[in-house]
Structures are given as structure tokens and as C-alpha cells.
Amino acid sequence: MKINSPLEAYKFLPATNCGECGEQTCMAFAAHLIDRSKDLTECTPILEEKFRKKYEELDALLAPEIREVVIGVGDNVANIGGDDVLYRHKLTFFNQTKFAYDVWDTMDEKDLIERVKYIQDFKKFYVGNFLTVDMVAVRSTSGDPEKFAAVVSKVVETTHLPIILCSFDPEVLKAGLEVSKDRNPLLYAANKDNWKEVADLALEYDVPVTLFAPNDLDLLKSMAKTFAEMGTEKLVLDPGTFPTGKQLRQTFNNFIKVRRAGIEGDREIAYPIMAVPFTAWMAHDDPVSASYWETVVASVFTIKYGDIMILHSTEPYAMLPELHIRDTIYTDPRKPVMVDPGMYEVGEPTADSPVLVTTNFALTYYTVESDISSNKIDCYLWAIDTEGIGVEAAVAGGQLTAAKIKKGIEESGFNLQTDTTHNTIILPGLAARLQGDVEDETGANVMIGPADSGRIPGWMEKNWPPQKK
Amino acid sequence: MAKKMKLSQISDILQDLDVESLEGVTIEGDIELNISGGGGLNPALAYALGNEISQISLHMANIGRMLGFPAEQLFASAFGMAESPQALQTPPRIQELIDSRFEVSKVDNWKNKIQEVTLGATSADGGSRKSTVTLGGENALPYYFDAEMPHRNYVTVDVFDMPIGMAKAVKGNYEDVINDPAEWAKKVVRDFNADMVTIHLISTDPLIKDTPAKEAAKVVEDVLQAVDVPIVIGGSGNPEKDPGVLEKAAEVAEGERVLLASASLNLDYERIAKAAIDHGHVVLSWTQLEINAQKELNRKLMKQCNVPRDSIIMDPTTAALGYGLDYAYTNMERIRLAGLMGDDELTFPMSSGTTNAWGAREAWMVSSPLKQDSDWGPREYRGPIWEIVTGLALSLAGNDMFMMMHPTSVQVLKEITQTLYGSIETEEIDITNWIGAEV
Ligand code: SF4
Fold first, then answer.
1. Are residues A57 and A128 in the same domain?
2. Chain B residue closest to A252 (CA)?
3. The CO dehydrogenase/acetyl-CoA synthase delta subunit TIM barrel domain covers which part of the protein (chain B) (predicted)?
4. Is residue A468 part of a domain?
5. Which of A71, A161, A340, B277 is most buried, judging by how many CB atoms fall within 10 Å of its CB?
6. Is A1 contained in some domain?
7. Residue nearest atom 2 of ligand 1, based on CA coordinates
């Protein structure tokens, strides 16, 4: 965005402090506009006709540096781009990288449907939510428009996920568009040879389009400028993803250059960027090596500015790290790291239920909590104030000590002697070395739980209730 | 001059007609297009105008279709092209790409250079290493075109002074050497391409074996004998015991320029600093995901303990992928950017305990503990990639040296970091037609 202080935004607001936006004052609302945690349309008064000019001016000033492009329709749209910074700690990155896994038009129908469903249904539970992948990219490998259209129809029938139509032949793309135009697919791709025809398709069907200029940023920019001139800014830039060697180093720097130019205000190149880690399969024959290298390339471009990517491996050992590195980079760094220290009830614990100790690092807490609750274990879960540090590091760094645990218990108002029948605390396996100290400090029995909370259910079966001494 | 008519004006007019309420409305009158100005139209203008008019008629035809009139048939028969829908396309409006040059500037506030630190000493410098490793010296974020990165990333592989619990996939590689740190060290250099070796003296922990410092120092001597690469010496992490253990180790490693791991704010860092200065070693300055604590400790090491600038490496803490890597990544990135922009308390090379990645359940568990998850697949493949991606992310944040464990992870991490660094030559691959690739 073009402004960076609340005051600059405030100037355009109605200045009535009416509270419609949910904030007490226009100034408070202005601060949310600057950190992008609220949308200008939430100020309903400014939408009135008399403020139209101010609204339009402010809206333009607030627009993200990198354009946002929408693929798909309805509940299943994929938004890409929209970033304002080069480093996540400067604000946060918006619209996480979208992962499209490929299918191709020479697949037999059964395999095709199975693969599309697998892509659609893949999920991994993480901190209260499921991580999932986003899109299906249909590649024309046959070169035959009819075959392509048939496979695209099948994909459209099978999934609601947004799709990418991949071919350099405008005839093939057109055939795919005919059967998927209601789904606002992304076209891949216009290049230096076919751009006129592909531009026609993008304009005629009003769909977003990728511009492909392998290792040629002048050409990429020329195409972007030309397409914008012709009337579409729904553009995605692919500077080419070369999978190995010096070419990959060059690719890496191309991504950095394009994004830097965009964030610094070169509107002509300020579009979302596409990476194609798929090309790793052109460099490796063995599927495990190819899969590994594809994941590595995908990780590089998830971290450095890829907004959307086309991938091939659907092995869990590729998809799981891809999902997690994306979450790593796109997690809002402004969100709190800690939960409030204290005693939490999971399920409906009674005096016979176990008392488990963990830290107040949000990630640790939620992981333990979900492992316990998803296995329907009733217990007391104690989040000790470790200043938001995980168990292992907190034990090493002295933020999780017997004294801290004692203090945590006292402050929660819970009495182990009277509120439980067992006077027992279960420490995380990674805090085993604190056992003796905790026994001395608290006078309670101390048991050592598993090192990973995923093993709590098995541990409970074997060890709970504790043997009477 | 001819008057230019904009399509947007026409669309504005059309917009005012609420299309959904068109039922029963009759459109009356003529649509006038008044093209004034003398002389002929120039061809470009005529072309543009023709295009606009065609667009308008398309809009009108669309309204016609909404009202139930088969407008497309009318078009088809009017232009006699019922057989070939292709010709209906409007020709491209622009015939040649608009020429444009891409330009971007280098970052202008990366003025400060990261300190260069050398580990290991050859006989010329009073040690017995065959090779040394130099870290740091960067003037930009890693692999960026802004400034050449003077040194590649290095990997030091973990060796322990006693058998420890390891993920199955890791353990498989070390079963034959698990009771012999010297053999273990040899193996990682010979077979797994380790640039360096880290000997962790964990048995010194009073809660484990409480091995005396003197005995532990023997293991250090054995390792120095067994390999000729630079080494890192790690304590057990016990803040009371570590200073004594590292002092003794520093003494027997005199002149070898080892890295002492580590000085931290929760132990007597002065003793470790002094051991390093007295015996010519480097100090690992370890803090926990807190940039200000890192500044504080570095400052103390420099000002209070007089550790020379070329003898400090930082470990700002590594959290595993999925377990706080976002903090570790951003913490390192902030540290490196602050260093490049001139914060002299942060201009040191960085080291990552990448092995921590194995703490992630995704790296070692047979399958997901949660029934709702999709199948996690074989863990033999999950573990190494977890370590690789954890390290790779930090390499992009500016980390220089990686402490690792799995041979596959070491190999792939070296491959990608050296590729980005620019030292890996491969055959060029033509991706122009990647879409059609058979895979
Ligand atoms: S709704 Fe608009 S005018 Fe009202 S307080 Fe919020 S910002 Fe101010």
C-alpha cells in the first residue's frame, strides 16, 4: 500500500467516531487499515455517495502492492498475491501459496478420478485446523483438444477445487475452457509464440492467465504490459522454474527480482508469481529422488515469493512438509505465541482423572490438547508459564523448572491433595530430568509421560490409574 | 479530429439498465454513433472504433439472449460462418508486444559485512586439521544477486559420547559405531560427507552418567585423532556442569580452533569465553528465539569477556518444521537483516541445530496419531525430508552452518544450498515444453 501511518488513512475517514466499524474511533479503525486487519468497506458511512471521492482515493492508497488474482468461483476460490512486504516480520504475508497437483489427459479415467479425489481429500490436522491442498492442474500431454476437454470435464465433475488448464496450444486451451468456463480456471500459459491467441481467450472468457517467459524478465514484463494494455490485469507471472544447477540459482534470483520490483512500486510487474517445481521430474528419473527434489524446490519458492505452484508428487512425504513449510511462512507473526498459563479442563475430568503438565507455548499446548481430546481422554492440563517456550527448550533454558511448576499449581487455585484422589502429576517425557525436583517441591507423586503427546493414549492404557503404593 | 468513444461509456449506460429487471422492457429508438471530424479515419482508429462497436453489439446481443432471442444464430447467419466458430473471434488488438525492460535495484542499505569466522587450524596455524572452514562474510541475504556470497554453507554431523535414543531412520546408520565416538566420527566424514564433526559430551550430565570432565576430554582427543576436519564440542546442556566440561575440552583441543557449544545467559558464560580465548577457540553464543537476548549475550561476550569478533558464532535456536520453525526462521532473518544494516552486535555467522527436526512426530512416528489425518506414508522418507526442509528454510534466513544427523538429509541439504550458492554444475534442462513431459 502507498501509505504507512494511521494518520494518513485517518484523513480520508468521515471522522465522526460513529462506531459502525466496530472500533471506538476512526483513528483506531485507521490503524487496522494500515495493518490490514480490517477492510475499508467495514466503515459503512464512507460508502455513502457523499464520501465517494474520499473512498476511492483511500481505497487506491490501501491497495496491496502486488495485485490479487482470483481463480475459481464460489466457496472454492483461490486468491493469490496481495502482498505488501518482502519479509514476513514487517507485517505478514497474505494469501498463502496455492498448491496445484497435476493430472494429465492421457490418464485413464479410473486413475484420474482417484487422483483428483485424493488431492481434494488430503488433510493433515494441525493446531486446531486441517491443512489441505488447493487445486488441480490439468496438463495436455496428448496435444489433442478433444482429449483435453474430456479430461477437464471429468475433473470439473469430480471436484470443486479450482483448476489450471495447461497447454501452450490455444486450440487445446479453448477446448478446455469450453467445458470449464463457469469455474473461472487459470490459463497456463501464454508464451512468446502464442500470446496473441491466448490473450484472446483470456479476454473472451474473462479468466486469469499465466505468462510464461523462462529466464527472460524483459519478455515477462513486456507480456504483462501488453496484456494489461489489452484489458486484463488478471495475470500470473511464470519466470520459469529451472530445476537444477546454475539455472536454479538464476530462477531463485528471478523470483526475488520480480517480487522486489513489485513491492517497490513497479506496477507493471506487480503480479502473483508462479513456480513449477514439477520440473524436478525432468531432472530425476528415480521417483523418490524426484519427489524429494520437487519438495525442496517447492519449499524454496514457498519461502521466496511463489504465490501458486504446480506439483506432481502426491506422496505424503512430499505433501506434508510442503503444507507445513507453507504454514510456517504464512502464519501471521503478529498472532500470540502463548496461551494464558493456568489449568485447563479437557473433556469432563473428575477427581480420578490425570493431571498433565505442559507449557504455555501455543503450539505445544494445542498439540497436546488435540491429542488428548481427539482420543476422548478426560484430564486436567496444566499450562505452565514458560514464557512461550516449548518443553525441551524450556527445560534446557531454565523456563520450565520445579519451582515454576509449583508456582503454576499454586496460582491456579487447584489443590492436588483435595481435588484429586491420586495426588499425582504427569510430566512430559522431555522434562523427565525434573522428576526428583518436582517431587521435592510439590510433595506430589510424579510420573513421566511419553516424549510425544501423540503417545499419551497408549501411555494411559498402560500406566493409568497409577498403582497404589 | 474524430471523437473517441470509449467502451466504458457504453457499459456505463448498459449498467444503468438493471439487466435482471429487463423483462417486459422494450428497447426503443436508434442508437446513434456520431463520428464527427473531417477526412478519413486513420486505420488504427478505424480499427479501434470497429472493435468498440463490435463489442457494443455483443453486449446488445447478450441482452437479446437474456430476453430469449437466439442472437448467436443471427450472428452466425449474418456473417455466414455457421460452420466455423473460430472466425467469430475478434482479432487481437495489439499485434506486437509492447517493448519493456525489466529493472530492479540492489538493496542499498545492506552496508555492513557479516564477520568472517574460521573453524579448525592446520599445522601452519598450530593445529592438526587438514582443512578449515570459514563462515560468514556475507553482504546480502544468502544467494541474492545483490552481493557475492563468499563462503558456502557447511554441515557438521552429530556424534555422541554414548548411545542415545534416536529416531529409527537415523539409528540405522550408526548402529555399528554407536559405542565408539571416534569410529562414529570417522564414519560421518568418510561415508556421509560431513564437513565437520560435533562431539556431544552428553554423558557428563549428572542425571545421565555424570562422566567427569577429564574423562570426557579424552573422548575429544580421540575424535581429534580420528578425523582431520574441524570439530565442534558440545556439552550436555547442564548449566552447572557444562563450563567445567568445556574448559577441560578446550584445554586438550588447544590450537585446533574448535567451536565450543555453547555459551548462554543461563550459565557461567565467562568461563566458556575464557576457555575459548585461552586456547584459541570459537564460542557458540546460544540464545532462545529472542533477538534482544542474542544482542545481550553477544555484547557480554565481546565487552565483558573480550572475545574477539572473529571468534563468535550465534545459535539463535532451531525449532522443527511444524513446531515453531516460523519463530526460528523469522528470528534468524531479523538477526541477519539487522546485521547487514549495521547492528554490530548481530554481525556474526549463524549455526542451526537442525537435528532438532527429528523431534517432530512427523519425522519419526510410524503413522499419524489422529484418525482424521490422511495416510502419512512411510516414515523412512518422512524423517530426512523433515530435517532437510527445516535446514533449508533457515539457510534462506541466513544460517551458515548446520548441525545434522541423517546422511540423506546432509546430502540433499548440501546439494540445494550449494546449488543456490552457485557451485553445482549440471546439464542445462530445457523447460520450454514442460507441460508435455512424460513423468
Ligand atoms: S465506521 Fe467509519 S466513520 Fe464510523 S468510527 Fe468507524 S471509521 Fe469512523
1. no
2. B420
3. 116-367
4. no
5. A71
6. no
7. A43
What is the reported pLDDT for A322? Answer: 98
Give the count of domains, chain B: 2
Is residue B60 classed as helix, strand or coil in its secondary structure?
Answer: helix
**Sorting pLDDT into bands at 50, 70 and 90, what band is A129?**
confident
Percent composition of chain B: helix, strand, coil (DSSP 3-state, to 5): 45, 10, 45
Task: Give A236-262 pLDDT, tens digit per residue.
Answer: 999 999 999 999 999 999 999 999 999
Asked if residue B248 lies in contact with residue B276, where contact means CB atoms within 8 angstroms, the answer is no
Tell me if chain A has a CB within 8 Å of the CB of B16: no
Q: Both B190 and B77 in a single domain? A: no
Interface membership of B322 toward A (CB under 8 Å): yes
Pairing state of beta strands A445-448 and A163-166?
unpaired
Which residues 215-274 of A are in CB contact (within 8 Å) with B?
A: 217-226, 229-231, 240-249, 252-253, 256-258, 260-261, 264, 266, 268-269
Alpha-carbon distance of A313 to A444, in angstroms, equals: 51
CA A342 to CA A54: how far, in whole Å?
48
CB A315 within 8 A of CB A119: no
Alpha helices in A207-347 (DSSP H): 217-230, 245-263, 287-303, 316-330
Contacts of A430 (CB under 8 A, 6+ apart): A391, A392, A395, A451
- Do B192 and B250 have their domain in common? yes
In a domain, residue B33? The reply is: no
Say whether both B81 and B209 belong to one domain: no
Q: Which of A118, A274, A296 to mutate to test the interface with B (most CBs of B within 10 A)?
A: A296
Let me know if residue A336 belongs to a domain. no
Least confident piece of the model among A142-151, A403-412, A430-439, B293-302: A403-412
Q: Does residue B348 contact residue B388 with C-beta atoms inside 8 Å?
A: no
Distance between CA atoms of residues B211 and B204, nearest Å? 4
B239 and B130: one domain? yes
Contact B429 A279 (CB under 8 A): yes
Which residue is closest in CA terms to ligand 1's atom 4? A18
Beta strands of B325-390 (E only): which ranges?
Answer: 351-352
Q: Which amino acid is at A157?
A: E
CA B132, B133, B138, B143 torsion-angle sign: positive
Q: Are residues A39 and A169 in the same domain?
A: no
Look at residue A294 and tell me if it is in a domain. Answer: yes
> Which residues, listed in sequence order, are joined to residue A446 by a DSSP beta bridge?
A425
* pLDDT tens-digit readout, B345-393: 999 999 999 999 999 999 999 999 888 899 999 999 999 999 999 999 9
Whether residue B85 is found in the same domain as residue B182: no
Task: Assess whether B59 and B132 both reside in one domain.
Answer: no
Predicted TM-score (pTM) of the model is 0.85
What distance in Å separates the CA atoms of residue B135 and residue B431, rounded to the nearest whole number? 35
Q: Domain check: are A142 and A230 in the same one?
A: yes
DSSP bridge partners of A424: A445
Q: What is the C-alpha separation between B253 and B147, in angstroms, rounded?
A: 36
- At residue B49, the pLDDT reads 55
User: Span A349-376, mean pLDDT?
Assistant: 89
**Residues A217 and A300 occupy one common structural domain:** yes
Handedness of CA A198, A201, A203, A209 (dihedral sign): negative
* Residue-number span of the structural domain to which B258 is assigned: 117-421
CATH code of residue A148? 3.20.20.20
For residue A379, give its domain range.
342-463
Query: How many domains, chain A?
Result: 3
pLDDT digit string, tens, across residues A419-463: 999 999 999 999 999 999 999 999 999 999 998 888 899 999 999
CATH number at residue B279: 3.20.20.20
Give the C-alpha separation, B220 to B215, whole Å.
9
pLDDT, tens only, B216-261: 999 999 999 999 999 999 999 999 999 999 999 999 999 999 999 9
